[in-house]
Amino acid sequence: MQQQTATIKELRDSNEQFLRAAVRSTQETMADLKPAAGTYDSHGRTGSQSRAADSTPSRLFDQQF
Q: What's the predicted TM-score (pTM) here?
């Protein structure tokens, strides 16, 4: 009985290590998915858009009806 209890404790500890590693990996992956803070300029344009006067900036709401 004591041997079974010791085996269960070892399994619990190893499972806890695997779960902690999975949580850490998931958190690191999610942190890498955030876009860079400098993606948009003060006019709502991305760095890849041209700076021409006729280019339409990115907007959350359409301002032209």
A: 0.47
